[in-house]
């Protein structure tokens, strides 16, 4: 019985990790220059859960790739960007990697 | 005397080119700026911003007239405050205010004097256009003058974080007060990528202006 419970818990944990989002996308107002991006990147990289950061001025997008099994809640992200001087319009979670997001931003031929 | 006034005005034009950059880059960011103008001006500024809305730092400025006769040094401790920011989709507008205290020395007056500086800047920026107006009032018991500066910038393409930005900037400046009365126009080419900013240009009479700024 204990063995079954343990197996079930481990399976649940693995499923929850697999199902968790890899990347958080934020639509941000006020992104117009490299210094803006530099400040936001510096702020978000200070989070232990952050694997990498992507900032696109053109798409007004800030994306955070998360380390496996970690997360950053929306309130913390909104506070971080507000304290960096910018306005968060929307927060979305996706399984897409930063590379995939970056590829999707390239202009189509 | 007239030549010295014109030379001093040109020097101050060079000084203010660098100052038209925002005095606060980002939270927990350090800004270091070095400027050289027409071989007659040297300036170094350093600011640290604990938060995105204020920064503190110091500036060291050396001015020399074109004939090398008159020299002035102004050293200030300065605080900058972002009074208001508007974050818009694809645009940003700001109002900054600042004040500084320090000392000035020069060979056109004896000893040193308490130097004061107050000013403000209002700017609007997208990735393709830039407009900024700033006003500086500099005073001591030995001098008092105000400089109003308008900058209009245009980028030939919209840059992103990982691409280099190029801006063409037209600058108009009006001087009032004891130093010089008049206006001046300059044309500048601005280049930046990441935390590095380089700017160079010339006044209408061909005086070179150049500036480098680093944010980290």
Primary descriptors:
heterodimer, A: 109 residues, alpha+beta, Alpha-Beta Plaits, 26% strand, globular, B: 216 residues, mainly beta, Porin, 12-stranded antiparallel β-barrel, 8% helix
Give an overview of the whole structure:
The complex is a heterodimer of chains A (109) and B (216). By secondary structure, chain A is of the alpha+beta class. Chain A is 44% helix and 26% strand. Chain A is built from four helices and four strands, in the order H-E-H-E-E-H-E-H. A four-stranded antiparallel beta sheet of chain A has the order 2-3-1-4, with helices on one face. Chain A starts with a helix and ends with a helix. Chain B starts with a helix and ends with a strand. By secondary structure, chain B is mainly beta. Chain B is built from one helix and twelve strands, in the order αββββββββββββ. A twelve-stranded antiparallel barrel of chain B has the order 1-2-3-4-5-6-7-8-9-10-11-12. Chain B has one helix spanning 2-19; strands at residues 29-37, 41-51, 54-64, 71-88, 91-106, 112-125, 129-139, 144-154, 165-177, 182-193, 196-203, 208-215. At the A-B interface, helix 2 of A face strand 4 of B.
Can you give the mean pLDDT of chain B?
A: 82
Uncertain spans of chain B: 1-20
Order of helices and strands of chain A: HEHEEHEH
Percent range for β-strand residues of chain B:
over 45%
Q: What percent of residues of chain B adopt helix (DSSP H or I)?
A: under 10%
**Main sheet properties of chain A:** 4 strands, antiparallel
CATH topology (fold) name of chain B: Porin
Measured by residues with Cβ under 8 Å of the partner chain's Cβ, the largest interface is: A-B, 27 and 31 residues
The shape of chain B, in one word, is globular
Strand order of the largest sheet of chain B: 1-2-3-4-5-6-7-8-9-10-11-12
**What is the ordering of alpha helices and beta strands of chain B?**
HEEEEEEEEEEEE
CATH architecture of chain B: Beta Barrel
